[in-house]
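> agent: user asked for a holo structure of the chain below bound to magnesium ion. Plan: (1) validate sequence alphabet, (2) canonicalize SMILES, (3) run complex prediction with ligand conditioning, (4) return tokens. Step 1... ok. Step 2... ok. Step 3 dispatched.
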Amino acid sequence: MESENGVTNSGPNGSAREAAGEATALAKRVLAGERAAISQALNQVDDNRADYQERRFALLDALEAAPSGVRIGVTGAPGAGKSTLLDALVSGLRARGRSVGVLAVDPSSQRTGGALLGDRMRLSSSARDAGVFLRSLAARDQLGGLSEVTGPSLDVLSRALDFVFVETVGVGQSEAGVIDLVDSLVFVVQPAAGDLIQFMKAGILEWPDVFFVNKADLGKVATRSAAELRAGLDLGHRRDPNRLPPVLCGSARDNVGIDELIEAIDEHERYLKSTGQGEIRRDEGRVARIEQALNARYGHFGIDRLGDEAARNAAFQEFKGVSALHAIAELGRRIESRLAADDA
Ligand SMILES: Nc1nc2c(ncn2[C@@H]2O[C@H](COP(=O)(O)OP(=O)(O)OP(=O)(O)O)[C@@H](O)[C@H]2O)c(=O)[nH]1
Ligand SMILES: [Mg+2]
């Protein structure tokens, strides 16, 4: 089958071998950072039709072993300044010669066929830069929950670019989904009095690796929020009990504190590498992604068909080297056949 841009696509009846060949070729172009290839790959991983699953898995599997850029979640309350901050971060990273991808998860946008391009993100100067790739995804729900395609989209973008950001509205529980997908989490704080208690209630303090109190141009309220936050952080309530996250203060609008933020992100990346935490996080995140997807589809009852905890972990390890999405499909088939056997 020939598409309009002259690229052959294995159609609904394309063989697995054909799919693998095309996937390898496309993956190579993605790894080279070719824009058209990145777009095509993002479309393919977002293609849910049953007939195209082989193609989707083959592509993600081909990318799985390739080195990945840094993945960063940017979360914070609505209006905290996440998009404005990303705009500034992208400019700052481009000035340092790094390529950047941004995935914006927008709870308010309805899916209209193709992806909506960075609607509320300004990124005006960056949008036409070849070293910047933007994509926005509709959220799964009004609360900004991540849709199933967020993980695979990040898997593609992080193989093509040095840095990939995912912007999500975060008000506590929604951090949980993004945490499994990224290396570092940046929390953008809207300065206001008494925020700390809100954060503690929402369980936000344990996740972020870097806090950025935004809108420092508003004056004292920002510096006070930062001080309050610093005082409230303690190692006892942290995902990583060995490291207190820095609390930075700046203004995304006025481009203040952006260099410091980039340095803090780099510093955390170095920390993850030197301690081996980065690899542990990626492995844990991958297992959590697989478990969560299987749980959503088959429930605890279904997952139990994979055996006890040790057996389940062994099953997840079996598919190491295969993309998470593919592993989910394979394990799903195993669960279904065991459920069917139970019924018989
Ligand atoms: N004063 C001031 N305003 C800012 C700053 N950064 C962002 N804003 C303003 O805050 C408002 C929200 O900014 P966005 O960047 O859209 O915030 P967001 O967190 O992406 O918002 P959602 O995506 O809707 O959750 C806009 O009016 C920005 O101009 C800042 O550093 N100082
Ligand atoms: Mg935004």
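> agent: step 4 complete. Summary for user: The longest helix spans residues 277-303. The pocket of guanosine-5'-triphosphate (ligand 1) is lined by residues 76, 78-84, 120, 169, 214-215, 217-218, 251-253 (CB under 6 Å).
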